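BUG: 3D viewer hangs when loading the predicted structure for this chain

Environment: internal workstation, default settings.
Expected: structure renders.
Actual: progress bar stalls at 90%.

Input used:
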Amino acid sequence: MASVIPEKLFFKIGEVCELAGVQAHVLRYWETEFPTLAPQKNRAGQRTYRRRDVEMALRIKELLYDEQYTIAGAKKKLANELRGGAIRESETSVSTKPAMRSLKPPPSLASRFASSPANTESKASQKLSPNSDQKDALRAIAKELREILDLLDESDREAKASSASSRK
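Structure tokens produced before the viewer hung:
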């Protein structure tokens, strides 16, 4: 579903709801969960969304509804995207399927499991049951991945803490 955002400076909550295809209470809830979605309020106390707010709402909807992320998962994904650079307009205007990940191991791991062409037939039976060297390598990789996840969780907690203290 492609959403074309009109060329305007400000949008009312009803307009954003129509563009995103969600109800107003859903947008208001997202504002509490996603600090990056923070529309300003005008003198009358009504929310005024800027283009970047509308783009963020569309991206949040895409993550939650189309890509089936949880709220926590969508927060992490958005944080990673924002660290990597601003969300491109093409990503938010046109909903596309996420890129499929390669099933090939990265070059750093491929060298550990490389097989010579002469041994490919004998290695085929070993693919189903990894040898002890492969099991050790997989355990080491799993340990490193857990450490990375712990670091990400720690940075998320720090970001939440700084976000909460800045809101006060």
